[in-house]
Specification:
Chain A: It is found in: Cell membrane. The complex is a heterodimer of chains A (305) and B (359). Chain A has 305 residues and is mainly α. Chain A has helices at 6-32, 40-58, 61-85, 90-109, 134-138, 143-161, 163-173, 175-180, 185-211, 223-233, 238-260, 267-285. Chain A is globular and about 65 Å long. In chain B, strand 13 (323-324) and strand 14 form a beta hairpin. The longest helix of chain B has 22 residues, at 2-23. Classes of the chains: A mainly alpha (305), B alpha/beta (359).
Chain lengths: 305, 359
């Protein structure tokens, strides 16, 4: 068996994990506010195409990412309006959003098939990146990788230690009580849904601008659903989502590398390992403690009830 | 219960109407079930080109419908059934995994004709068709063997089914013929279409030293990954993928389904359709070799074109002995060529390929 270069492996591991991490983190905030948005896949793919289109036309990946976040948020506002104002069923609306996003993206993406993505420079942090071994592993990634890690920390801090986070969780745990206390349930949920949409959009754009990098119809190929699953298995906790996303993305890449290196482990086991290991690890660390879903998750709220 | 009765009644009405429609000489309805999106730039894209060719050929006399992104699961049976219920006269199911669903639905709709791509199960109203992609793989293997400098050729497999294994064997035999030091590294992606994963697989192979990457998955993602890495050669798969020419894509296998789809549609319109088992290659034009770019040295290009010619005329068979199986047991004797039965069920590597085929 040939050896695998750990530095190259870790670089591609982080690249493979970042889209799922971003999308899952966004969805976690949405669900913490008591809303189940199954439209993650649709928002991701829309982010992927919008990010790519803007990136190609402007030549700037940064602008592409920004617009992808906006597009994801805009799409999620349709969902927010239908579920929060018109009080429709969240599961059905979310699924509809996914179908809509897939169709919309293939329409927008038609002229962009086979076009080369604009480059996205890696952040070569001076001095730090020159440290042997650790330097290339920790300090030579693209800015989105660091940004996604920052967002994990920020979400964790906001939800755990701030008043805004407390209100968001209150709305998600018991919207009637939160309403009785005078919090604007619908307004909080609109904000959470917009954040979730923006993050899914960013995750999608990361696939089309960095990970592949190109536009192909349907290119997220189920990453949104994986993100949704990770939220549940991570018991709605940001650091566990980070662990889950990195495990899943990491093992996906690792098993491909093991195959390429001629490992003696049968391919059948290798290819199911990302799912198995991620679920196992997250279930084992969640054996103790409170890890239930937010109390009002998926329930319709109306001030009169 | 009431709902079920209603649905059944509705289906019955639908069926009668479909029958009536046929009698009235209304357009022949041709359906297509696709594994990926029509914009994948590869496999499904080419099938859809075939569909468009049918529309162009027959104009108002046909109506085509298609459904994209149909998984190879219970969902496939639902999608095919729905298409049959909606009055399709002929349905092409265009991925290997639709084999059993196609047979199952065909039993329920004896008056609808079905055509399943790349499978081997037929019935009175189910025909199968495929292309001899391995002929194109022989050409790719020849070019790849010449081009590689690291002597490592990466291969992205989808699923370990005979069609994919044939391609690997054919490419390997011909790469080895021109470059005895060549080594194949094979990665099974277990998907036909997942651009991110396909790109990851290509990167893993490139990280392992491959400077030529062959793919048997449907999207252009490995091409993009190779372009990003630089100095890596690829081949268009199923479609020309010429947007990546002249580098990394140096040639391609193009599946040309249009003539077959037109011929079979005509057979249904004229009432002459019969279950068939078609397996055409370069000679019949079902497999085409995309332009070999200038990134390939002239003498290599010439050799490759000569091979295309020889295979097309039937003068040369890509599986011509002496060839041993991976474990060293003889398969084909000197000058012997493989029979279609063995090729159709191929489940072994030829001698020299490392690794095991997953079950």
């Amino acid at each position: 068996m040939d050896s695998i270069n750990p530095i190259l492996l870790i670089a591609s591991l982080m690249v493979a994990s970042t889209p799922i991490l971003l999308a899952a983190l966004g969805e976690m905030v949405v669900e913490k506010a008591g809303v189940l948005n199954l439209g993650v896949e649709g928002m991701m793919i829309t982010g992927a195409v919008v990010g790519f289109a803007i990136g190609v036309n402007s030549g700037s990946s940064v602008l592409g990412f920004a617009c992808a976040a906006l597009a994801g948020a805009a799409l999620s506002m349709i969902f927010a309006f239908i579920t929060q104002v018109l009080l429709s069923n969240q599961v059905a609306t979310g699924l509809g959003l996914t179908l809509f996003g897939l169709g919309l993206s293939s329409l927008i993406g038609k002229p962009y098939v086979g076009i080369k993505a604009p480059g996205f420079a890696k952040l070569d942090i001076p001095l730090l990146s020159d440290i042997p071994v650790l330097g290339p592993i920790l300090f030579r990634h693209d800015p989105m990788v660091y940004l996604s890690l920052l967002i994990v920390a920020a979400v964790w801090y906001l939800l755990t230690y701030t008043r805004a986070g407390l209100i968001l969780r209150a709305v998600g745990e018991n919207h009637s009580a939160a309403h009785a206390l005078g919090y604007k349930v619908v307004r909080v949920r609109f904000a959470a849904i917009a954040f979730g949409g923006a993050m899914a959009g960013l995750g999608g754009a990361y696939v089309s601008l960095v990970r592949v990098p190109q536009w192909v119809e349907g290119m997220t190929a189920g990453a949104g659903w994986i993100a949704l699953a990770i939220v549940v298995f991570a018991s709605w906790r940001p650091w566990r989502i980070l662990l889950g996303a990195y495990l899943f993305g990491g093992i996906t890449v690792l098993q491909l590398n093991l195959q390429a290196a001629g490992s003696s482990i049968p391919v059948e086991y290798l290819s199911m390992s990302p799912y198995l290991v991620t679920i196992l690890v997250l279930v084992i660390i969640s054996v103790r403690g409170n890890h239930g879903a937010p109390g009002s998750l998926g329930r319709v709220f109306h001030a009169s009830q | 219960m009431k709902l079920v009765t209603k649905l059944l009644a509705g289906a019955a009405v639908g069926l009668t109407m479909a029958g009536a429609a046929l009698a009235q000489d209304d357009p022949t309805k041709v359906g297509f079930i696709y594994i990926g999106p029509v914009g994948d730039g590869g496999w499904t894209y080419e099938h859809d080109q075939g569909r468009l060719a049918v529309e162009e050929e027959f104009g108002d006399a046909v109506e085509t419908v298609y459904q994209e992104n149909v998984p190879e699961s219970a969902d496939a049976e639902r999608a095919i059934t729905q298409m049959a219920l909606s009055g399709a006269d002929l349905i092409f199911t265009t991925s290997f995994g639709y084999m059993d669903p196609t047979i199952a639905v065909a039993e329920k709709f004896p008056d609808v004709k079905f055509e399943h791509a790349t499978g081997y199960k037929t019935a009175d109203n189910v025909g199968v068709y495929s292309a001899r992609f391995y002929e194109g793989r022989a050409v790719q293997g020849t070019i790849a063997g010449h081009l590689t400098e690291s002597n490592i050729i990466g291969y992205i497999g989808s699923f370990p089914i005979p069609e994919v294994i044939r391609g690997i064997n054919s490419a390997y035999i011909h790469a080895k013929k021109v470059n005895p030091d060549v080594q194949f590294k094979i990665v099974w992606a277990y998907t036909w279409f997942d651009p991110a994963k396909e790109a990851d697989a290509a990167k893993a192979l490139i990280d392992q030293g491959a400077d030529v990457v062959l793919q048997h998955t449907d999207s252009t993602a490995p091409q993009a990954a190779a372009q990003e890495a630089g100095g890596v050669y690829t081949f268009g798969q199923a479609s020309d993928m010429s947007e990546y020419a002249p580098m990394p894509r140096v040639s391609s296998i193009i599946d040309n389904w249009a003539p077959y789809y037109i011929e079979r549609t005509r057979a249904v319109m004229e009432g002459t359709w019969e279950s068939d088992n078609t397996w055409d290659g370069i000679g019949a034009g079902m497999v085409e070799i995309g332009e070999i770019t200038d990134a390939v040295p002239a003498e290599v290009k010439e050799e490759a074109l000569a091979l295309v010619e020889a295979i097309g005329s039937g003068e040369y068979h890509p599986f011509t002995g002496p060839i041993n199986k991976q474990d060293g047991t003889p398969w084909l004797a000197e000058g012997e060529t493989a029979d279609d039965g063995t090729l159709a069920g191929m489940d072994f590597y030829v001698e020299g390929i490392e690794g095991e085929i997953p079950n």
